[in-house]
């Protein structure tokens, strides 16, 4: 084994003003760096996140030829040369390009103050005595291990490599002093940098751009926060770490604008194997990513140029993409920018004109951010809430992005938001209220979480840190393994297909760099998904039948046939019990449930499905209410002996010791077809019973691996669409279990079924002007490797699960949001929020949406809150409306009124809500809330 340095994350997040915000450094052993991290946790019992202090060495294998400069020619000949103009040395700052010179002059005229803003420059440091170094530059600090936090002086290696003196060159583009040049064919007498009056803090984190120690960047960023820098520029990129993500989040919350390079790639020789997509930290939404545009206003990408020349010159180009990453990207001009160097000082050469890479673009964008902040200082301070400093970053992004040149038809693909126009940006100051927080930086992709089976796992899981470690390692391998670079084209939120998952698992398992710990984790995934234990999968399917609900028999039988079919779900026939008509009596239902309890009592990997299709509801037994499921032969005068009580049913369900348990209730079918509305309407089978699907779900325990779902909410009908053989809910369940929602996967997962049912049932019934919303229990610890059955061969009609939509569906259609009384005491006090008329209109629209979904209680709660803050004259009336709603719910639950009466009164309450919304809307249109 080898020794590696690992980083132990603090168990409690440190505040922004703490020293560096780092945990402990430990030296420990392992086969690979990540094995050492896992081994430490196993030996010590430490439960927190641990990662190796990696060295970013993406370019190490091509270090000797990294970004070599051409000696014969002043410009890189394979890229467009700047125009032949008087100020060609700073062509990138002029009006036809970035507008930085005009913006600089305009800001200086307004502020007339040196050191008006602090900018942290994170790089290789600076070469002393270069004439172009910023006028107001501090000695800086070095976080290199052997330099003991001394100054940020860069020790040159006397080579022509860009990596030596990289900091000097990029710092000069940012804030270079006034210089006089008359040598090597270059004549110039002016300020070189875009914001020469700023205070520049050099922070040295490496001596070559090819090798960045992970922890050094974290220390540098925290140092910049501590000393009050408002902008950070880093013309480097690399492999992400969890500590990088945390540092970016701290900077964002502190209101620090971070601009970093998207990265570079090559199209020749060994260097062509490097990643071509945006690298980190630029890939995170809370960072501004610097992409490149050339002097002819086309992308800094060979294939995007009119004539792509790849011979006789440098083969480097800028990284870009994937699509969603470009939302936080903007382009600045490169290559063939001025490049300050001391590497050829013996030949009296201190400047070249062949600077390139996104390295040159980054300081231009950072300068534009600093100019904007300086220009709008007073407005920012008057708007800034100390608790929401991140809005300062979003304001910078808003101004730069909305002023960018978007004339190039493919700007979104190559540039992101467009080409930097610094002077135009000064004309924009956003409405502070519209600024929204960017997505938190994290060291993972949803595709990786899905691959590992933790896509929907909730926070607080005991294995959370270990799973984050696996996710981080995979993301790093995507950057360092050439065979895996292609997966960096995938957007952060994009779902990975099953084919893609199989491919990536195979490549990771065969990688020499992947840890043994990760390989064992991946192997367990292969075993789980490839060997669903169908011999230990059981199903109990109940269709009560009867004259008023005959369709329940077909529902149960069809579900049973699908599960038993060897070419479909492939459950063993003896493990699928179907009870319909006379067999669906009280005795058989209870005995069959007892039988499943016994069968799976000692099994570790059992999968159980319990399905009931019939009537269910609450009966008022004097001082208490009891829930009953009707079974065949049910008698309202002898319920205890002819029906199954909710207590009996829930007790047996909760005794089922299954790793994976799914209970589905398709209750409250009706008897007759109404001609004007071709839907089955509810007809209560027992005049003393108040229909309630949700009450039984409340009796069932929730926990890992248990999912309970009912076909509709209490005040809705479970329907059959015209011409359908099965009830709507069951028809959609059959589709899901057959594989229509599984994206070609050979197995159906719980997330597939939930996504299909929660999305399709409300959508399909909507065109009949009816509401039916399946309700689920509080889903806990639900993982994407929760398999239910095998898929049959079906035509692929599904494009993958949208995780955000599924999360929203689970929030909307669950017990917590099902019908419940409104707690009027929880209505917040008047907030006097400063909302625009448009914001109020959006709130009104959101409430209307809740009404359309039959979320009456939630609608009234939102209505109360809006009235309290902006329409107080209506508040008392809505309090009365809340009381009426609570009273109606209570009467229904106690059996005082039947379902038909309940719906009539509920419809009147809905109309009253809509009337209030109409009045709010009219008042909002007639009065400007922008002047509050």
From TrEMBL:
Residues 538-778 form the Peptidase C14 caspase domain. The active site is at 123 (charge relay system), 166 (charge relay system), 359 (charge relay system). It comes from the Bacteria. Residues 117-418 form the Peptidase S8/S53 domain. Keywords: Hydrolase, Protease, Serine protease. Gene3D superfamilies: 3.40.50.1460, Peptidase S8/S53 domain (3.40.50.200). The keyword Nucleotide-binding does not apply. Residues 844-920 form the Effector-associated domain. Coiled coil: none annotated. Belongs to the peptidase S8 family. This is S8 family serine peptidase. It comes from Flavivirga aquimarina.
């Amino acid at each position: 084994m080898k020794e590696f340095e690992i980083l132990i994350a603090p168990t409690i997040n440190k505040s922004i003003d703490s020293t560096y915000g780092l945990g402990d450094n430990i030296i420990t052993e392992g086969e690979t760096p990540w094995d050492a991290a896992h081994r430490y946790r196993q030996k010590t019992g430490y439960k927190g996140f641990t990662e190796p202090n990696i060295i970013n060495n993406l370019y190490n294998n091509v270090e000797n030829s990294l970004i070599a400069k051409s000696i014969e020619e002043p410009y890189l000949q394979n890229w467009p040369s700047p125009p032949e103009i008087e100020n060609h040395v700073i062509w990138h700052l002029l009006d036809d390009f970035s507008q930085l010179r005009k913006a600089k002059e305009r800001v200086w005229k307004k502020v007339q103050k040196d050191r008006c803003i602090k900018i942290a420059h994170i790089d290789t440091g600076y070469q002393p005595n270069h004439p172009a170094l910023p006028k107001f530059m501090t000695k800086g600090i070095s976080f290199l291990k052997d330099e003991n936090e001394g100054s940020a002086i860069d020790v040159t290696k006397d080579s022509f490599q860009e990596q030596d003196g990289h900091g000097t060159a990029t710092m000069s583009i940012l804030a270079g002093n006034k210089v006089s040049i008359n040598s090597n064919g270059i004549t110039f007498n002016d300020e070189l940098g875009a914001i020469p009056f700023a205070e520049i803090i050099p922070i040295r984190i490496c001596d070559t751009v090819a090798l960045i120690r992970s922890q050094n960047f974290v220390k540098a960023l925290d140092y910049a926060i501590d000393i009050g820098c408002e902008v950070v520029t880093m013309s480097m990129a690399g492999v992400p770490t969890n500590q990088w993500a945390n540092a970016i989040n701290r900077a964002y919350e502190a209101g620090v604008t971070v601009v970093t390079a998207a990265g570079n790639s090559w199209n020749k020789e060994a260097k062509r194997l490097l990643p071509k997509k945006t690298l980190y930290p630029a890939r995170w939404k809370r960072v501004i990513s610097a992409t490149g545009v050339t002097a002819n206003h086309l992308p800094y990408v060979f294939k995007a140029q009119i004539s792509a020349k790849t011979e006789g010159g440098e083969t480097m180009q800028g990284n870009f993409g994937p699509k969603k990453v470009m939302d936080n990207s903007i382009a600045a001009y490169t290559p063939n920018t001025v490049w300050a160097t001391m590497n050829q000082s013996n030949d009296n050469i201190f400047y070249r004109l062949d600077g390139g890479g996104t390295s040159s673009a980054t300081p231009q964008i950072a300068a534009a951010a600093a100019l904007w902040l300086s220009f709008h200082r007073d407005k920012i301070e008057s708007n800034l809430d100390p608790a929401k400093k991140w809005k300062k970053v979003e304001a910078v992004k808003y101004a730069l992005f909305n002023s960018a040149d978007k004339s190039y038809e493919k700007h979104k693909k190559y540039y992101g938001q467009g080409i930097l126009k610094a002077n135009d940006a000064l004309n924009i100051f956003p409405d502070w209220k519209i600024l929204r927080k960017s997505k938190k930086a994290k060291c993972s992709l949803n595709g990786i979480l899905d691959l590992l089976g933790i896509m929907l796992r909730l926070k607080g899981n005991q294995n959370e840190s270990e799973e984050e470690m696996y996710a981080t390692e995979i993301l790093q391998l995507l950057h360092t393994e050439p065979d895996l670079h292609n997966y960096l084209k995938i957007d952060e939120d994009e779902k990975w297909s099953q084919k893609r998952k199989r491919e990536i698992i195979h490549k990771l398992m065969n990688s020499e760099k992947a840890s043994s710990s990760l390989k064992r984790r991946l192997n367990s995934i292969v075993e789980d998904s490839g060997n669903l234990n169908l011999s230990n999968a059981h199903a109990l399917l109940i269709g009560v039948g009867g004259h008023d609900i005959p369709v329940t028999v077909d529902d149960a039988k069809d579900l049973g046939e699908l599960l038993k079919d060897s070419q479909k779900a492939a459950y063993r026939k003896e493990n699928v019990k179907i009870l319909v008509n006379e067999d669906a009596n009280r005795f058989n239902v209870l005995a069959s449930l007892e039988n499943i309890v016994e069968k799976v009592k000692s099994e570790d990997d059992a999968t159980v499905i319990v399905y009931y299709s019939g009537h269910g509801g609450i009966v008022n037994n004097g001082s208490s209410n009891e829930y009953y499921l009707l079974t065949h032969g049910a008698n309202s005068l002898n319920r205890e002996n002819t029906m199954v009580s909710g207590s009996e049913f829930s007790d047996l369900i909760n005794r089922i010791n299954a790793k994976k348990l799914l209970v589905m209730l398709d209750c409250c079918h009706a008897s007759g077809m109404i001609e004007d509305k071709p839907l089955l309407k509810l007809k209560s089978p027992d005049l003393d019973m108040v229909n309630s699907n949700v009450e039984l779900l409340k009796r069932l325990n929730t926990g890992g691996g248990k999912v309970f779902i009912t076909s509709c909410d209490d005040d809705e009908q479970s329907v059959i669409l015209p011409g359908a053989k099965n009830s709507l809910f069951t028809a959609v369940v059959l589709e899901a279990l057959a594989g229509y929602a599984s994206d070609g996967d050979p197995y159906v997962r719980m997330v597939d079924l939930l996504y299909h049912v929660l999305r399709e049932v409300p959508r399909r019934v909507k065109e009949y002007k009816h509401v039916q919303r399946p309700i689920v229990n509080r889903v806990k610890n639900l993982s994407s490797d929760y398999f239910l059955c095998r898929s049959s061969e079906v035509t692929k009609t599904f494009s993958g699960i949208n995780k955000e939509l599924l999360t929203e569906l689970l929030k909307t259609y669950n017990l917590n949001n099902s019908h419940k009384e409104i707690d009027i005491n929880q209505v917040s006090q008047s907030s006097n929020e400063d909302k625009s008329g448009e914001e109020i209109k959006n709130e009104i629209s959101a409430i209307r949406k809740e009404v359309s979904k039959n979320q009456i209680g939630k609608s009234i709660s939102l209505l109360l809150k809006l009235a309290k803050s902006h329409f107080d004259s209506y508040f008392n009336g809505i309090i009365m409306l809340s009381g009426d709603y609570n009273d109606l719910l209570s009467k229904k639950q106690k059996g005082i009124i039947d379902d038909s009466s309940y719906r009539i009164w509920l419809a009147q309450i809905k109309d009253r809500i809509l009337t209030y919304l109409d009045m709010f809307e009219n008042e909002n249109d007639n009065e400007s809330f922008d002047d509050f």
